[in-house]
Amino acid sequence: MGLFNRKSMEQRQQDAMKMADDIGQGKGFYGKMTKAFLGSEFTEQVAQATSSMHQADHASALRAQGAPTETVTVLGIQDTGQSVNDNPHIVLTVEVAGTPTALATLVSRLEIPRVGEQVLVVREPQTGTLLYAGLAPRT
Fold first, then answer.
1. pLDDT per position as a tens digit, 53-102
2. Given phi > 0 = left and psi -120 to 50 = alpha, else beta, which region is 97?
3. Neighbour tally for 127: CB within 10 Å
4. Which are the contacts of 136, defined by CB distance < 8 A and separation ≥ 6?
5. pTM of the prediction?
6. Which residues lie closer than 8 Å to 81 by C-beta, 6 or more apart?
7. Which residues, other chains included, contact 101 with Cβ-Cβ below 8 Å and sequence gap of 6+?
8. How many CB atoms lie within 10 A of CB 87?
């Protein structure tokens, strides 16, 4: 790549995500240096944040493919103190078939669910894991 070749926005975002994944896993130069200077606790936090970003992308892709969603009620919400691009990483406690279930997820700060509200979840087909898919439409 030359000095004046410009990458597209999509390519720069992919490169940044790859770097964040490497930091979270302690791989590559940046990952090893981050782990050495900031410690494994920081790299674990980065790994958790990138995992949430991947889950949000995966939930969107499943919805786009037509995966069925379930409407569930929020029983509780807990802030983890982390955020990615000003979007908070939270733990939602939702009621699924009468059972309280905790979901760690990244939500838009413009659409943070509240206790008692309805949200959509989608099941990951291979593992059956619930993924947060956004606020349920109001009727």
1. 777 777 777 677 777 888 889 999 998 887 777 888 888 899 888 889 89
2. left
3. 8
4. 71, 117, 118, 119, 120
5. 0.62
6. none
7. 93, 94, 95, 130
8. 18
Q: Which phi and psi angles does 39 have, rounded to 5°?
A: 95, 165
| Cα–Cα dist 68/136, whole Å | 13
Q: Please name the residue that has the structure tokens 């410690």.
A: 39
Q: Which residues contact 18 (CB under 8 A, 6 or more apart)?
A: none
- Which residue carries 């606790």 as its tokens? 41
What does each C-alpha distance from 56 to 7, 101, 103 come to in angstroms? 25, 18, 12
Question: Residue 31 belongs to what H/E stretch?
Answer: helix 28-38
